[in-house]
Structure formats: structure tokens, C-alpha cells
Specification:
Largest sheet: 7 strands, mixed
Number of helices: 9
Strand content: 15-25%
Helix content: 25-40%
CATH topology: Rossmann fold
Strand order of the largest sheet: 3-2-1-4-5-12-8
CATH class: Alpha Beta
Bound molecules: S-adenosylmethionine
CATH architecture: 3-Layer(aba) Sandwich
Distance between the termini: 37 Å
Length: 273
């Protein structure tokens, strides 16, 4: 397992320079415009609810642009990620902003040893769980970092969408990847990241499929109470060649939009408090 995670870490380290570049994550806009929030946080803020004055942990925070947006909304933010280059970049962005933020290098599996809780909110989103071999352990660790009464929120790519052939440019919806979990990951080598024009040196990237039932049941098994499960029709990036940009988000063509969900979001809480 370690060999897959090590390859993924190298791959994510490699993506950071490109994501920090001007054609990457719009870092300068975030730093220089005191009203700017990432599109991801704008969408999730409506579903997660108020964060002002609360301790928020962002799992798999990457270069911290969403983490810092939550900070801008008044949360006391901590982000963790297993990529040392991503954490270094996140700290460098935070240094340019008047927002106190803590960024910690940690794998998900050992976050309970590396991150000091508890938190009022544990948040994770957009391209997180496909990198994880063990969702049961993921849910146990994140739920353990929540204070009683605290909220857990995830938004991620819908597993039904991840089973589809994403290279077709016609409107056919064709499954070519597993929907249900398989212990051996799929390798999707890439020359470039999804943003930025930098070329990757470490191209291997290993992903695991996790059906919706596994995601929900992992959270329930970790003792969380489910408050809401939603399915959505947009993505934050262009996954299929025939996707259409509307208001900064990517949608399937109108004729097939109702046939498959693109993302899910879950709001849950830890009992007590
Ligand atoms: C697509 S990003 C998600 C963050 C956010 N959506 C963004 O775009 O900023 C995925 C992140 O997960 C991190 N990651 C992947 N596997 C991990 C693991 N096992 N433990 C901790 N972080 C991990 C990667 O380093 C990467 O920063």
C-alpha cells in the first residue's frame, strides 16, 4: 500500500509549482482581494452553515486556498495534507494574508497523531477520497478529531461519475471503471495537472473507487449522525470533453444532465455537546 501512497505523494508534490503559477489556483486574487473566496467555499458555505468563531479542520487541504477562504469567513483554520510541498505552499500563501492559519504535514491515516483537536468542524472536498485506500479508517480518524456536537462536511466527485469513460466526446454515458471498491488501485498517469501548464515528472497517480454506500456507512460506523445527503449536477473542473461552462462551473450537456450525478455532499454531526 505504501508504494501507492508514496507515488501519489510524489505526484502531488509535483503539481504544486504549477498550481502556484499564474495559470494555476488564482493565488494572487485570493491574497490581494479581501472579499475573495474560492468558488468551492462559496458553494459549500451555503450547505455547511456558519463558521465564524469556530475551529475548522480542513483534511487534504492541498495549497490551502479553500482553508484560507474559511479563515476569511471567520473560522480558526487548520489544514493538513501529506504533500510537504503543498503544506509549504499553503504556509507561504498564509504569510501574505492577515489570517492566522495552521498547516500540518500529515497523511489522513495518522492525522489523529499529528493534528491536535478537537474541532467544531471537519471539512474535506473536491478530489479527496479517491486517493484513500481505507475509508473506514478515514472516517474514524476524522470523526475522532471532532468535538461532540461538531459538524462534518464532505463534497466530492460522485462515485457513479468516476465509473464513466471520461474521454468520450459524444453524449453516451458508458461505464468502464469499477463503481464498487477494489483493493488494488487504478493508475491514471498524467503529463499535466488539471490546472497550470507545468509538466509532471512523477506521473503515476493511484486512485480507489468508493461507492456511496461505503462513504455513508463509514461515517455512520464512526459514530456520526447523517443530517443531509445531496447530489449535484456540476463539477469545478472539466472532466468530460463535452462539458459546458456555466457561471464558472462545468456541466454535462442539457440533454444528458439529468442522467447522472456529478458530485455528492454530506453534512453530518457528532452526537453530544
Ligand atoms: C484535489 S486536492 C483536494 C483539495 C482541494 N479540493 C483543492 O483543490 O485544493 C487532493 C489533496 O489530497 C492530498 N492527499 C492525497 N492523498 C492523501 C493522504 N493519504 N493523506 C493526506 N493527504 C492526501 C493531496 O496531496 C492533495 O493535496
Amino acid at each position: 500500500m505504501d508504494e501507492y501512497l508514496d507515488a501519489n505523494r510524489r505526484n502531488w508534490d509535483d503539481r504544486v509549482d504549477g498550481h502556484m503559477a499564474p495559470d494555476g489556483y488564482a493565488v494572487d486574487e485570493l491574497v490581494n482581494n479581501p472579499d475573495h473566496l474560492t468558488d468551492v467555499v462559496c458553494f459549500d458555505a451555503e450547505r455547511l452553515g456558519p463558521v465564524d468563531g469556530l475551529r475548522l479542520l480542513h483534511a487534504q487541504c492541498h495549497i490551502g486556498t479553500d482553508t484560507l477562504s474559511w479563515g476569511r469567513l471567520g473560522a480558526t483554520v487548520t489544514g493538513f495534507d501529506f504533500s510537504p510541498k503543498a503544506i509549504e505552499a499553503a504556509r507561504s500563501i498564509a504569510d501574505r494574508m492577515p489570517i492566522g492559519a495552521t498547516f500540518i504535514e500529515s497523511d489522513v491515516a495518522s492525522a489523529d497523531q499529528n493534528v491536535e483537536g478537537p474541532f467544531d468542524i471537519v471539512y474535506t472536498s473536491v478530489g479527496a477520497i479517491c486517493w484513500l485506500p481505507d475509508l473506514h479508517g478515514w472516517a474514524q480518524v476524522l470523526a475522532g478529531l471532532l468535538a461532540p456536537g461538531g459538524r462534518f462536511y464532505i463534497r466530492d466527485t460522485h462515485p457513479a461519475l468516476l465509473a464513466l469513460d471520461d474521454e468520450r466526446s459524444d453524449d453516451a454515458i458508458v461505464t468502464i471503471y469499477p463503481y464498487f471498491h477494489e483493493p488494488t488501485p487504478m493508475n491514471f498517469p498524467d503529463e499535466q495537472s488539471y490546472l497550470g501548464s507545468a509538466t509532471l515528472t512523477h506521473r503515476d497517480a493511484y486512485e480507489w473507487s468508493h461507492p456511496l454506500s461505503e462513504i455513508v456507512n463509514s461515517l455512520l460506523d464512526a459514530g456520526l449522525v447523517l443530517d443531509r445527503l445531496d447530489e449535484h449536477q456540476h463539477l469545478d473542473w472539466k472532466m468530460f470533453p463535452n462539458m459546458i461552462a456555466e457561471g464558472g462551473r462545468w456541466y454535462l450537456p442539457p440533454e444528458i444532465r439529468n442522467r447522472v450525478p456529478t458530485q455528492f455532499s454530506i453534512l453530518a454531526h457528532k452526537p453530544g455537546g
